[in-house]
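3.2 Worked example (two chains)
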Amino acid sequence: MGMVIVAGHLLVDPAERAAYLEGCREVVEQARRTDGCLDFAITADLVDPSRINVYERWESQDAVEAFRGDGVSDEQGSMIRGARVAEYGAVEERVLS
């Protein structure tokens, strides 16, 4: 498989969203410095105050797995009320702009 895209969203209590995102800052910085990472973002949704959007683009499945490790911390995991995140294999890229 070629490029891997990880996309979806997490749901947290709206009152905890800012703290959750701040807790992700180091992970985002680390991911973006990791070999094989093409893009990595964890962001607040503009419409739903409980939603956090997840987007990652990696050169390969091996790169994803080398970075992923144990996933979110226990503290962050306890803040998540729901999630829908999936990995997608991409075989070609067409640049639109």
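3.2.1 Second chain
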Amino acid sequence: MDKNQTMHEWLNWLTRVRLLFIVLILAVGVVWPQYFPTSSAYRLFLPIIILWITFGILELILVRWMPHATWQGGLHVACDAVMVSGVVYATGLQDSYFNSLYLLVIIVATILFRGALRTCSRAFVLYCWVV
């Protein structure tokens, strides 16, 4: 099987699962503050999630509109890393319960590119920058 075809299949699957996870994060983020005290930056949580959903829908359209573009995988991973940094910032920095989302970005990059070291180092830099 062609590498581009395999990446297209993964991206097609990834865009659907990403939207499911974003909705799950939104549900947890809406319910969680009712039971525990939160930071003052929590007001940014909902706009960040809405922006992430918008990016997810645009990426879903791109996957269907340009199925053989090789740059889409990098766009997906970069967008997810930036959005995860925003969610971590909005929910309490190092005390955030969403820090483990960086691992999901690294796992997706490993599946798509087979090069987790670069993605891991970039995620670490983003996390250090946010914290």
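3.3 Remarks
The chain is about 75% helix and 0% strand.
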